[in-house]
User: Fold this.
Amino acid sequence: MDDVVQALVRLDNVEELFEVTGEFDLVTLVSATDIEEFRDVIKNRIMKIKGVKSTVSSVVLKASKGPRSTNGPQGAGSPSRK
Assistant:
């Protein structure tokens, strides 16, 4: 699994990478400008990494909390305070 992790870390579109318990071994947060780029990242980059057997994808529709949220003072879309 370490080889898969190192390969994923080198991909520019992989913003975050977590080793997890449960049904899957890894969870990544992948960014893309559009669905075509997303498809390319999954099909032509991630799926070609030796050791990757399958992927399951979900598209984030809205971030309500956290660094990518547009709600509240910590949100990426919120004005900064001085």
Q: What stands out?
A: Residues 75-82 have pLDDT under 50 and may be disordered. Strands lie at 14-19, 26-30. The two ends are 44 Å apart (CA to CA). The helical segments are 2-9, 35-45.
